[in-house]
Every structure is written in structure tokens, then in C-alpha cells.
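Justification of resources, computational component.

The compute hours requested in this renewal are based largely on the per-chain cost of generating structure records like the one below. Each record pairs the submitted sequence with a full C-alpha cell output. That output is archived, and it is also reused by downstream analysis tasks.
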Amino acid sequence: MNEAGNGGIGSAKRDAFECVQLGNLNLSGEKNISCLLVLGMHRSGTSALARILNLAGAALPRNLLGAREGNEIGHWEPEKLMSYNQRLLVELGTDWNDWRPIELDRLSDGELSAARSDIEDILREEFNSHPLWVLKEPRICRLSKFYLEILKDMGTQVLPVLIHRNPLEVISSLLARSDWPAHLSSVDASLLWLRHVLDAEYATRNLDRAVLSYSELMSDPITALKRVAKETGAGFSNDLDEITPEVFVFLNPDQRHHIRSSEEVALHPVLGGWMEDTYNAMCNLERSRHSKAAIKTLDDVRAAFGALTPIIGAFSEEARDAKQSRHVEVEELNNHLQDRQTELSEASATLQLTGKELEQARRDIEAGQKTIDEKSQQIEAISEQLGEQQAILSAVRNRIGAREGDDKEIAELVDAHLEHLAAAHQEQLDEQARQYADQQNRLVSEIANIEAARNAISTELAGAQQGRDRISAELAQVQAEREAVSDELDGVKRNSSELLDQLSSMSEELVQATNQIDQIHLEYRQSTSWKITRPLRLLRDASTRIVSRLQAYFAGKKH
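The structure output for this chain reads:
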């Protein structure tokens, strides 16, 4: 397989242009220009499908959106068009992750005309000169009617290819995305899936289209391609059997995550109802694209979803605000906890530093005491030497006194010499004694200072220990508050699930009431007797039940 099959964007561009027959065609209304329009919810396999259609012979856009986190095989869509669609959604007061319906009438006629012109320019720039090209960008599902009108005005034949995926897999994949907003829940992801599928299916209902599932694409892509060619009339330039090895190399099973079964959808407490019915209907259309039962189911879900969208939106906003408030509280608690942990780390570092200073002070005291002992020993040695000199002097004087016949001058000289020697020794001893006394005083002062520092350090240690105990108590309180907030969040999630259950139940009653109204209309048209008041009473009773349920629910919500 070539490099593009492994996700290389540069080679993908070359493959996109090499795998189709180039000519002098343009997007100005030529009848032989066709667009394979891939429509599907985010994380539903639209990227893989676009690349497989390209390998079969459909041209890709010139400027591809490259691979990103969560989609390492590449997006295979025009980057410029994706950015433009996102800006258009923002101008319409919505976003890619908003499941509420889009209102194009928010734009003036001039703004709509400018948007049409901008999109046409982008499409011509990306796909000029290609008779068959593939267009994929999940936001188009929300703007599908608008895009179909634009492509029709350009003279391009639209060949829709719808792809759907198990909603549980899509939701898990969405929640794992780094750009999925923290304030949105799995309920929002569920409704977003529902909106994309319903809008895309309804807009393309009257066109020759193919409906695929992500599971079929991954397990048997060649059969899926052959069915696309048969059901849409797309004429692929490449032999599908010949590209089989390259297709299977590109569709690496290791790239598929969040695998869930169809049975899990039916058993899910939130997805049961609308999502389950829609998923099953799309699976039926995959097997039989003209299934009337599937179309009716989708119409029923669309009608109920549309009728209750304002109510669901109000509850969703309330739950989102509560979740956002709790999220802010959790963030504040986390920041407070982080601050306390920082203070604790600083206190621990201070304790370690104080311990080192105390140990150094102890070593200094021991060294000072050792110096004092050494100086004391030196003073004692000098004192002994002085005693010995004095003893020698006394002996010399005695000997001089004993010599009665010696010359008096010699005696005087000897006495003077001995006295001078004794004075010099005494002066030296006095100086050393002063030095030793000064040094001893300094050591005593240093010892006193060290002892004071030691007492101060002990006081600081006691204060630090109290601070550490206080911080530990605060950390325990913060952890308790954090657990309480987590319990409240769990409560909000449970309330959301209960809300959807009640809304689903009310939607079923609404559908039943609609059927009763249809029956009443039939009886009314066929009846010629006074019994015509009977269906009117049935209509009144059905409406009263629905209104009573809603009033009771809202009354309970206020309390």
C-alpha cells in the first residue's frame, strides 16, 4: 500500500488526483459532475468512508485537514470548508456540539446569499476539473438542506452516502475527545447523535442514496463500496476488486475503539426510546433503503423530538447550569486543596531546613567546647612552665647567696638578668592569659547566642507542627467537601436520567394523542349523526391528560 494508505497527507493528495481521470471539466453546471456526499455524525466513520471512496476513484479536496489527536488516519475533508462551516454555525448562534435545531432565518437574505457564494467558491477551489469527487464534513449534516440547494445550483449531481454507528460507541468516543466541553454530559452527546442522524436522513430522503453502518464498512468494505455504486449510480474509475488489499491495509482494526453491541442500546437507561428506535430504523434502511416502516419510525421520532425540544432544552440548560456551578465549585476546591498542599510542602521544607540548622548549631557548640578545653589545657601547661622557671630562679638565687666570696658586681648582674628574664616570662604569660580570657568570653557569648537560636528554632518547630496539623485538618475538610460535591453531581446525573425517562414517556403519550386525533378526524369526516360530539370528548380527554402530566411535572420540579 502507498504512503497515503498509512495516513500520509502529502501522498494522499497525490493519490486523490491520480486515481481519477482528469479533464477540462469545472463546476459550472456540467451534467457529468457528481458529488459523493458523505453524511454522518462525528466519530461515526465518515473519515474512513471518505478515504475508501477515494481509493475507489473519487477525488479528494486539494487542501486536506491533517491527522489530529483522536483521528490519526486523517480526516480526508477540506480544511477551509470545515473552518467556514464552524464560523457559519457561530453566526447562527450555535456550535458543532449543540443539538438544538439550526435556524437559517437568523441570517438576512444578503448574508445567506454571501454564504452560498463563499461555499461555492471553496468547492470550486477544492474540486475543480473532477467528474466524481467526495465531500465529507460532519457539520454538513446540520446544514444538509442548505448544501443540497447549493450543489444543485452548481449543476452537480448529489449522491448521498449516509453512515451511522452504534450511539453508545459514538458517545464514548465523543466524551474521550479533548475538545468535548466539560459542562456537556452524555445526554447532550446522545441528543447530538440523534440530531445529526435525523437531519441528514430527512434531507436526502428523495435522492438516490446509500445507507451504511460503520460495522459493515470495517468488516466488509468492498461489498459496501459495491452497494454504494449500485444504489447511487456512482461510476468508480478503479476496479474495486483490485483495490481490496490497499483498502484492508488502510482499515486497521486497531484503530477501532469503544466497541459496543446493539443489545446494549436497548438496555441503556438513557438511550432507550428515541435513540434505540432511530438506530434500529437506520439499520433497517441499511438492509432495505425504501423500508416504509423505518421511514415512519423516523418520522415519529422526529415529530416527538421536535415537539419536546423546547422543554428538553430548558431542562438541559438547567442541568447544564447546575453542572457548571458544581464544576466551578470542584475547581475552587481543587485550587484550595492545591494551595494547602503547597503550604504543607513549604512547611515540610522549612522543618527540614530548621532541622539542618539545629544540627549545625549543635556541631558548632561541640566545636566551641572543644576549643575551650584545648585553650584551658594550654593555660595549664604555661602555668606549669612558669612554676618551673620560678623554681629555677629561686635555685639560682640560693646558689648566689651561698657564694660569700664571689664578686658583688657579678651577683648584681645575675640578679638583673634573672629579674629581666622573669619579667619577660611573666609578661608573655599575662598576654596569653588575656587572649585566652577574651577567647573564652567570645565562646561563652557564642554559646549563649547558639542556645538562644536553638530555643527560637524549637519555638518555630512547635509552630510549624501546629501549622501542619491545621493544614491536615483543612485538607480533610476539603476532601469531605469534594466528596459532597461529587455526591451532588451523581444526584444531578440521576435526575437527568429520570427526566429523560419521563420525557420519553410523555413523547409516547403525545404520539398516542396524535393517533387519536387522526382517528377523530376520520370519524368526524365519516359521521352524519349527533354522535360527532364523542370524538370531540376523546380529543378533550387526551389533551387534558397530557396537560395534567406536564403541569404535575413542572409543579413537582418547582418544589
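The two ends are 65 Å apart (CA to CA). The chain has a mean pLDDT of 78.
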